[in-house]
Design goal:
The chain is of the alpha+beta class. The chain is built from three helices and three strands, in the order E-E-E-H-H-H. The relative contact order is 0.21.
Length: 85
């Protein structure tokens, strides 16, 4: 995954997301907003997961599943780019 595109995405403190690249708008819940902000800071996946586990008091395995699903969803909407394998 590449988080570079997030530098161009507008994210409000309330979770409103605007993608100027295609005009799409979204609303993220507090968990999604937290993860987006972590990604926007270009943190490593491991650092993001550690922060997620600490912030929301979830087990690491659950955090990994949730984060993976979250990344897939925001890639579908063009918020991040999937790297070619």
């Amino acid at each position: 995954m590449s988080f570079a595109r997030l530098k161009q995405i507008a994210i409000s403190d309330s979770g409103f997301i605007f993608n100027p690249l295609n005009g799409d708008m979204f609303q993220a819940n507090s968990t999604g907003l937290f993860l987006l902000e972590q990604c926007k800071q270009q943190k490593s996946i491991e650092d993001i997961l550690s922060a997620f586990v600490e912030e929301f008091d979830v087990e690491k395995i659950e955090a990994e599943k949730d984060f993976d699903l979250f990344l897939k969803q925001i890639a579908i909407y063009g918020i991040i780019e999937k790297k070619q394998e």
